[in-house]
Amino acid sequence: MPFYLDASALVAIIALEPTHVVVRAVIAADRDVPIVSDFARAEASAALMRLVRIRNLARSEVPVVLKRLDDWALTVAEARKTNGEDIEAATAFVRRPELTLRAPAAIHIAAAHRLGATLLTLDRGLARAAATLGVPCINPAEADAPGAPKD
Predict the structure, then answer these.
(1) Mean predicted lDDT score pLDDT of the chain
(2) CA–CA separation, 135 vs 114, rounded Å?
(3) What crossing angle do the helices spanning 84-94 and 103-114 adopt, rounded to 10°?
(4) Cβ–Cβ under 8 Å, residues 22 and 142
(5) What mean pLDDT do residues 121-136 have?
(6) How far apart are CA 104 and CA 134, in angstroms?
(7) Does residue 118 surpass a pLDDT of 80?
(8) At what angle do helices 103-114 and 124-132 cross, to 10 degrees?
(9) Domain edges within the chain
(10) pLDDT of 20 strictly over 70
(11) Which end of the chain is more exposed for a tag (fewer CB within 10 A), N or C?
(12) What's the pTM value of the predicted model, to 2 decimals?
């Protein structure tokens, strides 16, 4: 089953955040090509621009970082489109108060489910909601995840 990467996983890889090592290890250990949706790419782009606004990323680095995102998403991963079915499912998910989901997280869960993929995220709340919904999910930064650093 391929991995569907949400924006948190993409940003970790592209911005070389400390968790990028475990995210890459989990992806490398899988035989399937990871999936990146158009929505995940858009959300990751917004997150990278936020890093510029809060001065964690220099404005001069923007073209290089965005090119790295686009190249990775279009060559290493399989690019897929979100669709109306994903939005409908996400709408149902956010209307379940016990899930406490925001729309972007719900869209990632819905897309991963529709694509028959395991959701790869660094967002604990998103991972909990995916598990509640029966969508396979992994957070490689969690201590018990495959490829996670051992103490």
Answers:
(1) 93
(2) 10
(3) 130
(4) no
(5) 96
(6) 18
(7) yes
(8) 50
(9) 3-138
(10) yes
(11) C
(12) 0.91
The rounded distance, in Å, linking the Cα atoms of 119 and 110 is 10
What are the pLDDT digits (tens) for 60-74?
999 999 999 999 999
Q: Which two tokens stand for residue 51?
A: 């890093």
Sequence-separated (6 or more) residues with CB below 8 Å from residue 25: 140, 147
Res. 109 pLDDT band, cuts 50 70 90: very high
Residues 93, 106 contacting (CB under 8 angstroms): yes
> What homologous superfamily does CATH list for 3-138?
5'-nuclease (3.40.50.1010)
- Residues 97 and 79: their CA atoms lie apart, in Å, by 31
Q: 108-112 contacts: CB < 8 A, separation 24 or more?
A: 108/4, 108/6, 108/7, 108/37, 108/39, 108/40, 109/133, 109/135, 110/85, 110/86, 111/4, 111/37, 111/39, 111/40, 111/80, 111/82, 111/86, 112/4, 112/35, 112/136, 112/137
Q: Identify the pLDDT of residue 142.
A: 85
Q: Are 1 and 116 in contact (CB under 8 A)?
A: yes
